[in-house]
Amino acid sequence: MTRSKNWDNIETDEKERIVGMTQGPRVAAALTAIGLCSIAPLQAQAPMVKTQAPGYYRMMLGDVEITALLDGTANLPIKEFLNGVTAAEVDHALAHAFMKDPVELSINAFLVNTGTKLVLIDSGDGGHMDPGTGHLIENLKAAGYEPAQVDEIYISHMHGDHIGGLSRNGERLFPNAVVRASRQEADYWLKAENLAAASDDAKPGFQHAIEWLEPYVKAGKFLPFDGDVTLVRGVRAIGTHGHTPGHTCYLIESRGNRLLAVGDLVHVEAVQFPKPQVTLKFDTDNNAARAERLRVFHEAAENREWIAAAHLSFPGLGHIRSDGAGYDWVPASYSVPH
Ligand SMILES: [Zn+2]
Ligand SMILES: [Zn+2]
To answer: Quick one: pLDDT at residue 12?
Structure first.
């Protein structure tokens, strides 16, 4: 800019504005030249967006398509919930993982397309436990599916964050699906005498299970199963009782590839992989839950199987690697399915 001969007559504020206009592009050009800035001037007024991408992640397991679906996240004060570990040990393990208490846990479900059946493993919390949850159906739709396409829903166990997304106000949210769970799990949560015998603190858990399953029970669309059985071709139930009386993993196999959906066998990766003996205060049987976690971790590490976990950081897909006394969690490396 060429300064006019009237420059001395211009007010000081106006001079600063004009100089700023001429300096801005020069500063940007200088920053660009040294690689610090690729766009011109300094005027970032756009509001921040603060959302994530739609919560789904896809992988192929042989001929089977697996889609991890995020229901949401919830902050859990884990020091209050873990057994067999000191608060200082938890803090140390979290700091080692660049985390701190409370831990933001993912709530994941898994959609399995076998080619002939569409199976959903767990249904998320449905927005009952935490305002950050209840996004399963929008993420299922974002992933290219509709709730009416789901043929079967396999429940790992009947804690609210796994069944809350089944129904709302007495209506089935998956109108064509048959819901399946182990008979031990169904008997424990759905029998009126267990609700009657439960402590006041425990009653809501029973009431919710009855309420959220009832639309399927009434429609004849709830079918408990007995033992470790194949439910559809390529998907088998594996009893892993302890976290709840009928907690069940689901093993998916295709062309020699195996993925085990482990439900609530593990919650806090920073603590329970290095120390798999650490249990949860809300396990119904701590010893059985610990034994099943140790068995599954050992087998998954030996067999190099895929794991799909309900509460590990979304998408909750990865592998378990033995690490001396404990284990490491190796999350899935990002991949575009073919
Ligand atoms: Zn649970
Ligand atoms: Zn859970």
So the answer is: 53
pLDDT in tens, 198-231: 999 999 999 999 999 999 999 999 999 999 999 9
With tokens 């769970």, the residue in question is 181
Distance (Å) of CA 133 to CA 73, 136, 211, 212, 265: 6, 8, 19, 16, 20
List CB-based neighbours of ion ligand 2 within 5 Å.
161, 264
The tokens for 211 are 């309420």
CA of 276 to the centre of ligand 1 (A): 16
Q: What's the CA-to-centroid distance between 159 and ligand 2, angstroms? A: 6
C-alpha 80 – ligand 1 centre gap (Å)? 15
* pLDDT bucket at 321, cuts 50 / 70 / 90: very high
The alpha carbon of 285 and the centre of ligand 2 are apart by a number of angstroms equal to: 15
pTM of the model: 0.87
Residue ranges of alpha helices (H) inside 198-322 are 203-218, 269-272, 286-303
